[in-house]
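User: I'm writing a tutorial on reading structure tokens. Could you give me a worked example: one chain, its sequence, then its tokens, then a sentence or two explaining what the tokens reveal?
Assistant: Sure. Here is the example chain.
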Amino acid sequence: MIDRLLPGHASCPGCAVALAVRYVLQGLPDRAVLVVPPSCIAVLMGPLPLSSTTLPVLQTAFETAAAAAAGLARAYRALGEDVTVVCLAGDGGTYDIGLQALSGAAERDEDFLYVCFDNEAYQNTGNQKSSATPWGARTTSTPRGKTTRKKEIVEILAAHRIPYAATASPAYRDDLLAKVRRALGLHGTRFLNVTCPCVPGWGIGEDASLRVGRLGVESRAVPLYEVEDGTRYRITHRPAGIPVGDYLRAQSRYAHLTADQVAAIQAEVERRWEDLVERCERVNGPAAVDRAEARVPAS
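And here are its predicted structure tokens:
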């Protein structure tokens, strides 16, 4: 497998986004072009004329990543060239500032793969809350904890009836790469939301990104699933169902929560999980899991 992310980039030590970008790039074909709005990924890619990847990169405005990708994909198609166009964006440029362009592209079913590396805040500018920030999480703009829920971005994209949408985690590499391959085998707008723990923003150790990522998945706070054509749901990893408190206590951004608040988050996680299971069972039957081999990797 080709490693297209070069050493010497500017990400923080222990950055889960850098690892997730590395995995996604490994899954891409040689003839691929990257579109990157302002984000941690833009810093990772490097300032012109330098680059941390072997693939061509177009760094675009915050709100225009999907529009730029749509234009590139159409231009290559008009030239008769087989080039895969891939957006690499953060949650600020996806859930918030870039959502209008992404929704428009999804409605038109533009032919590109959009990958959101979701570290649940505007981490590149100092950890301000975004609509990807979960309820209760402390940021510099929500010092007492966010008082609104996290936006359901995969459900929003699925509602556009795009060919493929999925969640992923760099802590589950095989699952992530399988979803990249699945997306690349389809045409139209395809979307991956990759949850990436942030060392400074989440208040975790430099060696803790993958451990915290696993806790999120195994507690069902970050379920791994995929949606085809907006209707066919599949859970791709059956989590252990550990208490969500194990996940929250590993991060200083939740240190202020009371026991009652943790219990409320646990109840919400269980509600969302049961809703996801019901959606999967309507299509696949009881306890449907497609890729049971995507188990917790060894530490």
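What the tokens reveal: Residues 290-299 have pLDDT under 50 and may be disordered. The chain has one domain: 16-284.
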